[in-house]
Amino acid sequence: MRLKTKTIHCGVEKDSAYNSVITPIYQSSTFRFEDVGQTKGYDYSRTANPTRKALEENIAALEGGIAAAAVATGMAAITTVLHFFHTGDHIVCTHDCYGGTERILRTYRELFGIEITYVDMRDLASVEAVIQPNTKALWIETPSNPLLNIIDIRALSEIAHARGALAIVDNTFLSPVHQRPFELGADIIVHSTTKYLNGHSDVVGGAVVVNRRDLADRLFFLQNALGQGASPFDCWLVLRGIKTLVPRIKAHEENARAVAEFLDRHPNVLRVYYPGLTSHPNHELAKRQQHGFGGMVSFEVDGSIEEVNHVLRSVNIFALAESLGGIESLICHPQTMTHASMTPERREKAGINERLIRLSVGIEDINDLIEDLDRALRFKTIVPTSTRPAVVEV
Ligand SMILES: *Cc1c(COP(=O)(O)O)cnc(C)c1O
Question: Is residue 192 in contact with ligand 1, taking CB distance under 6 Å?
């Protein structure tokens, strides 16, 4: 089966009771034994649940892995993977990883002594330079958030394997439609299914996918031991969302490309970050490694903070909100929202300034999206205001 067919058929049609075409929601904590010591494959829903299993088979098939675990959130997926490691192990992580990843790595260093080094993974030599004898994994996230830097999964996987380490890829930003890390050498893939996989902004969820038997055994042990499995209803929603993944991703990309090109020409925009633009510094790598450029666009407003705030307040269709990957368009100010927990120094180093705006481009009519942005960007006549958006940490 090809990817588009897999999204619709993998993991479903498993209802032996009534042959329902759509996977039922098995909202049951426990399952009756057939006889002493004999089940129909399920005994308790923390360990395994048929609806969750359907989603797991589906996601594993999309990524080309042998097994997946569907868990409660993207952070639960990341936490589960961190339990593959021991005190004294060392992980090398991309310097502009998701904020929650940085926070949990910091916590695991403090609690369990898992060492961590951040490095700009665009520079392969600097990755090699920080690898130690106890390095057990490279933590790769590409494209990065919010600047959409692209790093080379194949080259980094080779570096990891040469040193006996695992290559772990957070594939949330592109989904298996636009990037398939196992084909590039990765060993473990994590997802926040909250984003494109579910795609409708009505679930938080996560997944871990592996392509080796030993990693799969450890994953199922951890899923049961840690108890982070996703609920049957949430799994059912994500499975439903995935059925339209391919056309959704295509629609997101088409709109994102048009928005990026519009912003690129706009006199009140200083810079646009979109890997699909030929001006993006990693455009060639993105073309080679990805099957598309995704639906996220970031840009710097050519104006004061008051004018940036004016843009954020003036859009009507784009909602001022965190998260991404849903069908509706969202606008976000990384400095005061998604990246507020970073220290000013780390933000500065990562290139996140007060003029930066991040868009999750939805699948609405592109003309409405561009008109909305165009209206908001006509800030020349605005009255400056000193009120700033509230600072929230997520
Ligand atoms: C959102 C996100 C996460 C965390 O996922 P949650 O579902 O919010 O826990 C991890 N990685 C990336 C790249 C994300 O965008």
Answer: yes
CA distance 255 to 363: 7
Tokens standing for residue 85 = 């490691």
Which amino acid residue places its CA nearest to atom 4 of ligand 1? Answer: 74
pLDDT digits (tens, 9 = 90+) for 218-245: 999 999 999 999 999 999 999 999 999 9
The CATH number that domain 3-242 falls under is: 3.40.640.10
The H or E element spanning position 367 is helix 366-376
The residues spanned by each domain of the chain are 3-242, 246-381
246-381 CATH fold = Aspartate Aminotransferase, domain 1 (3.90.1150)
Q: Distance between CA atoms of 355 and 379, rounded to whole angstroms?
A: 14
Looking from the CA of residue 97, the nearest atom of ligand 1 is 13
CA of 100 to the centre of ligand 1 (A): 7
26, 89, 98, 180: which is the annotated catalytic residue? Answer: 98
3-class state of residue 124 by DSSP: helix
Reported as a single tens digit per residue, the pLDDT across 86-142 is 999 999 999 989 989 999 999 999 999 999 999 999 999 999 999 999 999 999 999
Confidence (pTM): 0.94
Q: State yes or no: is 32 an active-site residue.
A: no
